[in-house]
Amino acid sequence: MTAIPSVAACAPNPDYNFDRFDYNNLTDTYNCPQGETLRTNGNNYLKTKENSTYYVKHYKTTKCQHCPVKLLCTKNAKGRLIERSEYQQYVDINKKT
């Protein structure tokens, strides 16, 4: 099995890159550097990248609209979106070794 790399998640400011968001396995949520919670709707979305097909979940929050650091975190007018691959747990394990 090959671990799919994480989505390129570079924010306009590196302090808000994907790796600065903490994943909570128990609640299946992410916490952003500002302390807000990004939730998934639970749907799996099929994604194809570099001849690989896999599923991702989307995580977002409505709090981005009024966040004082939104422009440092995302260029998306609708707010930050995190995609979590079905293989993300393996990517995380590989990063630790």
Question: What would you note in describing this structure?
Answer:
By secondary structure, the chain is an alpha+beta fold. It has one domain. The protein contains 2 helices and 6 strands; from the N terminus they run E-E-E-E-E-H-E-H. The chain has helices at residues 70-73, 88-96; strands spanning 22-24, 29-31, 37-40, 45-49, 52-60, 82-85. Strands 1, 2, 3, 4, 5 and 6 form a 6-stranded antiparallel sheet that branches. The longest helix is centred in the C-terminal third of the chain and has 9 residues, at 88-96. The protein is globular.
Protein topology:
Elements: E1 22-24, E2 29-31, E3 37-40, E4 45-49, E5 52-60, H1 70-73, E6 82-85, H2 88-96
Antiparallel strand pairs: 1-2, 2-3, 3-5, 4-5, 5-6
